[in-house]
Every structure is written in structure tokens, then in C-alpha cells.
Amino acid sequence: MQVAQLTKILNNSNMDARTWDEILPIVYHQLKSLARSVKHQHKQSLTLNTTSLVHEAYIKLGKSNRLDINGTRHFYQLAAKAMRQILVDNARAKLSQKRTPENSENTQENYLLEIDNQVTSASEIIAIERALKKLEKLDSKLAEIVIYHFYGGYTFVQISEMLNTPERSIMRYWDKAKAYIYSQLY
Amino acid sequence: MTTENWALIEEIFDQAVNLDVKNQLDFVESKANGNKDVATQVMKMLESKNQDFMGQFPGKISTEHLEISQPKTLGNFKIIKKIATGGMGRVYLAESISADVSIKVALKTIRIELINENLKIKFQNEKSILSKLRHKNIATLIDAGVTDENIPYIATEWVDGENIKKYCLENKLSIKQRLKLFLQICSAVSFAHNKLIVHRDLKPDNILVDSQGQVKLLDFGIAKIIDDNQNKQTQTQIYTPDYAAPEQINGEQCGLTTDVYSLGVVLFEILTNSKRFELTDLSVSDKIKAVNSPTNLNIKTLKIDKLTPYSLARISGVLETIINKAMHIDPNRRYESVYALVSDVENYLDKRPIKAMKDNVFYKAKMLLLRNKLASSILAFTFITISIAIFVLINQIRQKLIEAQKSKQVTEFLIESIQASNPDLTKGKDISVIEFLQNAKIRIQNDSFDDMKLNAILKQTIGIALTKVGEYKDAEKLLLQSIEVHQHNFKTHISLANLYLKQKSYTKAKKQLQFLRKKDSLLTIEEIIQVYQIEAEIYSTDGDFEQANAIINAAIKFQLEESSNTRSLIKSKLILATILELSGKINEPNEILRETLEISKSQYGNDSTITTEIYNQLARTLTSSSPVPWDEVFNLYQLAIKNQIKIYGPYHPIVAKTLLDEGFAMRFVGNLDAANTNATKAMKIALRNFGSQHMLTAHINFLISQIYFSKGDMLGAIDKLQNVLEVYARFYGEDHFETNQIKTTLAIYFIKIKKGQEALDILNLLLISQKEQLGEFNKATFYVMMNILKAHLLLEDYNSNFVIDGEATLKNAQKHLGKENILTIGIQIVLAEIYLQTQNPLKASKLSEELMTFDMVMNNVNIKNRVNEIMSKAKMN
Lengths: 186, 877
Description:
The structure holds two protein chains of two kinds. Chain A is an all-alpha fold. Chain A has helices at 3-11, 17-41, 50-64, 69-99, 122-138, 140-152, 156-163, 167-185; one strand at 113-115. In chain B, helix 9 (256-272) packs antiparallel against helix 12 and helix 21 runs parallel beside helix 23. In chain B, the strands form three sheets. In chain B, strands 2-3-4-5-7-6 form a six-stranded antiparallel beta sheet, with helices on one face. Chain B has a three-stranded antiparallel beta sheet with strand order 8-9-10. By secondary structure, chain B is an alpha+beta fold. Chains A and B meet through helix 2, helix 3, helix 4, strand 1 and helix 5 of A and helix 1, helix 3, strand 1 and helix 10 of B. Strand 1 (113-115) of chain A pairs antiparallel with strand 1 (59-61) of chain B, so a sheet runs across the interface.
């Protein structure tokens, strides 16, 4: 798909579920290749958090194509979803690699964006994912906040602008969502 | 959770979250209006409030995997090759360019983001301090600075040596030699401390031993340079979590005792060749939790390397005390200096009492036990057993509680429990382990521990101990109480499952496992395997061998692929052998056991606990092969008993169990005297440890009863069997299947000595119970009915109802078991005899004639003779 097409889709104010599913892989790859190029540019080692990565991806996309307000909002929403996908994939790869260490060769790709084990372990990510799936069924709004804040790394202010909802409510939703996931894990 | 519930949960949560913690429970319960699921869910959610959970992004971009082109020179050094990439930066082997003689150095570059503007000045300052740190056990600093390209570097003396842990392992050093190396480390650290330089990152990787056996410490003071200059936002740790003291991880003030802590970890690791904490898979918050409260480490503490020549047992005691004091969570309670640590290690080497013991409660406990042992040698046996029990307990608890305040509470509690069981205080009354544990149980239920968690751990430990000695009811109570506090404790759940398995309460056992399975993403591989193993045992004792077989094979496959824990793999194979044996296979279990025995012998030695366990099991399974290789069986039993006495001492219950097994085999081959000797020995142990009302005692009585039976002493046999019955009834319950089997045997014994009424009293009750439990047409029920008929025959009680009953029984047996079933034939013979006695020779003869057409009858001389006899008697009439 051409980037121009992607922009057009993103700028559309009414996106249905199917469209989301269609363009998620594009953003997913976009983020991955961006992560790769960021790594090559910075020869010295560095730690970059997910938000800056998403932001860089946005700038790159925005440079050649104009994303309007809707497009920007959609892009950030989508990026967080992609980030979730990448990290969950990584966690799975990491756990299966643990079982069969011989296959470590082909997982280079997965480590471009690595799970920060210091913060959350791979098995925790899988467990969180499982809880998040359940939460999506119970209350998709809460689940969305988790995706934006936890995976996208967006601040409550950013999320409140994105969803046009008061910041206090976002914080309340986050607390509740986090509490639910916690209850499923511990 | 239904969506409908969720709305209610959300509503209650939204309101409760703003309340004071202490009011939450009442509020939630009143709002939930009796819906327990909802209340539990909300409370669980509220718990998350103050947890550090999902607080940070889970991802980062790391460049560690990318190869970076290697610079040729750095400052005044020519790079020869890259040695390593670590958390701080890279390490190169390099050569000095400027010096006349080329000096080899270890050149460290520091990661750029760890550094800020002041670094150059700071480096110069530190350089002058560190270069004065000249000690034979410290790698000397040669140069430090920042290159023109702004790359900071540190150059130290190049040490051609090996990591100390590896060195100890490869050279197979003795404990003494290891301690001597450790003293060299301490000497270097102590020297630096006198100059007020703290290492802050002591770990085996930073401690090398060169070819002369000289220890060299690397990276002195480097952590500090970087730490002081650290940009706090990068959150990069300079220390290594596995070796860092709690105050370091918590970001608090570090001092000289921070190094003492790390020295404790190093000492532990070089002695055991294993890791003190296995933290690599944990998240930062979990690491902090783990190091601050080792109680949370129950999953991953103490993974002892199987190759280590020194088991934890060997370093336990004095050395363990030294390590624990060095690693005390509270810096003020550690050795106040490296010097103090050194002098205790030297005390140990010179066999002098160590200082750490002085005010140590454990030491007191040991002394107390020792004194008692000597004071009353008659009671010594019992006391040895108790002292073993109590030290096992203390050690189990201590592994979980390193925090002294808590472990002190626990120890004092246990000491008081012994004192209550102390012969001096109990006026010379002999006490057993069970009494001791019961005592502890009562005390823990009455004592108020202010720390709920501690209370839960104690309950768990005593619960497990009670399970081991067969006091299941009390064990269950304690474990359930423990789990109320410690809801997700793996060990408590698995212990409960094990307990229910032993009680044959399969549904309850499965429920515990189901709970664990739900959490399987949070379990370790070994824990998952444990769940599988116990599940297989449950199905197999429940008689579902197919399912049991499938589960244990899955576990074995999983273990072969994913785990290197041989001991646990052997355990799975032993379970598999048992399942196969129970399902009637003869050769397969023996083959598996023989193969496992070889592995175990080569890995763990001929007299290890695990090898001994296999001797025991192999001996048992061999008795069901045909022909039985009796010489081998007895040989194996002898080996097992010899080892067990060596490992556990002569008065341990496990010895009694093996003596008992051997005794059954001896009786079977007709060696009644030897069987009797075994039974007597076993009984002595059982009575000492458990008293007369224990299952082990009952099993021994069962053997004795069989010996009497073989000798023809029926009254003796009955007497013992009544004793067995009493214990079974108490243990399993009056109507339990196992109890009923003993009752049936007892009734048959009565019939044998022609006491029809006694037999009938038992059998009539038995019939009611078995009809209820097993149904009217179950084999066991028919067996009881047949014996009832026999008892009536004995009593010459032939009223018409009785004949009708007999006819109905035969008809039902023919219908449900088949005509040629051995039991049906038995009933038919008894009925024929009844016809004879009730003057109905025609019917008797008809039944016997039919019997003669069955292969089963014709092929069995005894039965054939009996039927022939009936036939001729019938014809005579």
C-alpha cells in the first residue's frame, strides 16, 4: 500500500473495524523498520523509549503526506496497537526461544524493539495480554486506555486530547483497567 | 465473570477506591449483597492501588545486538581485541602506545549516556585517588580519561586469570581452599575501605584468579565515578542486581557494609557454585521486592547446581550463619566491617566459635537440644528424631525468612514448642515427633503473630511437616489457614494437592491443581512439572491409568525438551513406573527403573537419597514379576535399608517402611522368622515416632497378622487385624473402601476359625455400606454376600429366607459377573452346600453338575475336588 493511500485512510473520520485491521500491519512494519534505522543511525548504544519511536514514525509519515487532525489521532491510536502487537510477539518469541535456544538466529528481527526485562518480563507481558483480551470483552473503552498508556506510552493529557475526554476520567479509567489486569495476574 | 457482574464490580470499585483502606472490605461486602465472586474480585482489584505495576513502558530499543565497528586506537592505547560488552560499556584488551615498554591493559569504555558534562573533571579527581590503590589483590589503575572523540575510558592492569567461580569448580577446590581465596578478596576490599573507597559492584565476574592462585579484583571505584555522574533519567544500573545490597537497589545511601553484603553473596556462590538469587527473569520491581524480602523469593531461591561437590547441607551451620550475617537486609545488622567478616571466617577455619553465633537464637536452640540429648540418654532416640524434625523445620523456614527479626520470632516459637515437649518439663514422659508437631500446631493457632505473612509461612511449614507424618486432618487445617493469607502461594497449593492425594480425596486434589494451572503463565517450568507429576499420581491412585500415563509422559517429554533437572526427571520416571506397575504391566516398570537406577547411580552416587529410593521401588515392583528374582529383591532391600540408616539414622520412619516392605516379601517366601524380626524392628521405630494409632503402625500390624496367619495362629492374626481395623476406621472413616477391605479380611478369618456369629456381625454391616457405596452388583458386594452365606452355613442357620437370598445372589452374580466368573462359581458352590444342608440333594446335585462343565472348575484341582465331594454327598442322600 502506498503511503498516500495510508494517509487517506487515516484521515477518514469514520474508520470501521475492518479498516483498522487492514492498516495495522502497515504501521507495525513502519515502526519496525523505523526502529531498525534508528539503531543504525546511532552507532553508540542508546535507549529510546517507545513514545519517541512512535513520534519519529509520525514525523516521517507526516513529512511527505499531510495527516489532518483525524489522521493524526488515528495514527497514534494505531501505533499504540502496533506497539502492543510487537511487544507481545517479542514476548512470545522470547519465551519460545528460551525453550529452543538453537533457533536464536532468526529472532534478530524481534529484538529490534526489545522487551525491557527490567520493567516487565516476557511472561508478564503474555499474562497481561491474556487479561487485556478479557478486558476488551468486558469493557473495550478501558482496554483502549491500557493500549495507549501502557503500550503507546502516551500521557494522560495526550490520551485525553486523542479521545476528547477529560483527563481525570482517563486517569480513573486507567486505574480501573490496571486494577482489573492486576486482579487477573496476582 | 459475566458482563452483568462486571457492571456491579465497576460500580462498587468506583466508590470503594476513594474510601479509606480499612473501610473498604465492609463497604464492598455490603454492596456486593452476598455475591462472593463480586466482592472477591473488587477486593483483588483494590489491592492493586499501591502496587508498582504496569508503571513503565514495557519496551525499549536496544542496540546491543548490533555489531559496532571497532576503533583501532583509543587515547594512548592501541586496541588488540574486544573482550566483552557489559552494562557499563565495552572492555578491550589494549596496549599502551606512549610507554617505552608496551604494557597490556584492560581498557573499558563507558556508555555515552551514562556520562554528563562534569565527567572529565571528576575522572581526573578519581584517577588520582584510584591510582593510589596499590594492593597485590587489586588490578592497578593505569589511566583514566576522556579521548578527543569524547569517549571516556578507564585502563587497568591486564589480568590473565579466570573468574573465581569457574576457577574453584575447575580446580575442584576444597571448602578450605575456597575460603582462603575468599580471604584474599576480603583483604583487598578491606584495604580499599581503609582508604574509604567502596567497590559497589563486587561479583564473581569482577574477581579473577591468576595462574599463581592470586586473586585480583577488577573495577574498584568505577561504579562510584559513574554513579555520581549518572543522569538519573536513564535509569541505568551500575550495580548487578544479583549481587547488589537492598539499599543499593532501593537507591539509598551506600556504605562500606554494601560491599560486605556483596561479599556474602560471593562467599555463598563460590562455596556452592550456584546463584544466591536467580533474578534474571524478574522485572525491576520484582527484583526490589525479592532482595528486600526474601520471603517472596520462594520460587527462585537457592537453585543449587547439581554439579557442585558441596551441597547446601555441607555449608549449612556455621558457614551459613556467616553468610546470612554478611547478607543481612538491614545494613546495621551485618558485620560492621570486612575485618569482622574475615575474623569469623578465620574462626571457622581454626575451629573456634564464631562471633555471629554468640547471640544467635539458633545456636541456643542447638545447645538446648544437645544438652537434653546428653542429659537423658534413654530418651536420646526420641530427641534425636525431634531435633532432626525441628532443624528441618527451622531450615525450611529460614530459607524463606532471612530477615532476622522474623526468623528470630520463628525460632523462639519453635524452641518454646520443644520446651513444652521437653522430657524435663513433661515429667519424663516420652514424646514423639507427632506430639511435638501437634504442640507446635496448637501454639501457632493460639499465638498471635503480628505479622500475618510470617504466621502463614509457619502454618505452611508445620502443615507440610504434619502431612509427612500422616496427620492429615490437622495438616489440612493449617494449610487452608495459610492459604487464606498467602493466596497464591504455589507451595501451599501443591502441598494441599499432595495432602488430598494421600487422603484419596481426588476431587479436592484436582481442584488445587486446577487453580495452579490457571496461573501457569506465572509458574516456573519446574513448578509446572510438579503439577503434572502430582496430577499423574492422582489419576493413577484413582485407577485411571490411561490418563495418568498420558500426563506423566507429557511431563517427561516436556522435561527432556526444556529442563535440565535430572532429579525431577527421575521422579517423573519413578511415577511412570508406578503407574505401569499398577496397570498390570510387569516388564516395563522394571526396565524403566533399572535404566533410571543407572542414571541416578552415575549422577548422584550409589548411596544418595534418590538412588536409595529407586532401590526401594525396584525391589517392590520386582515382586510382581514372574518368576520373582527373590535374591535380587532382598539384595535391593538390604542396600536401601543400609543407605537409609546412613542418611536418616536408624530410627527414621523411612527405615521402618522399607523394613516393612521387605517383611512382606519375606513372609511371602515363607521366611517367617526373618519377617518377624523386620516387623519387630519396624514396630519399634513406628511406636517411637508416631505412637500406636498411626497408619505405619497399622501396616506393620497387618504384616504381623499375616505372619500369624501363615503360622496358623488364627487368634493372634485376628487380634492384630482388629488393631489394624481400629486405626483404619479412625484414619479413613468407618465406611471407607480401604476400611471395608480390612473388615472383609477380618470376617474371613473369623469364618476360618468357625466363629460364624462374629463374622456375620461384621459382614451384615459391611453389606449395607458396600451396597450404598459400590452398588448392589459390584464384585466386592458379591464377595461379602458369598461370605455371609458361608457364615450362615457355619451357624447352621438355614431358614427359608436364607435359601432364597442365596438363590437370588447366584442369579444376580450370573447376570452381572457372568456364569464362569470365579466369584459366581464360589457362590454357586456355597449354594450347593446350602442345598445339601437343607435336605435338597436334587438341587445340590444339579448345581454341581453344571459346575463340572466349567473350564474354571475343571482346571483347578481344589475346586474340582470340592464340587466332586458335594456331588457324591448329594447322590448319597
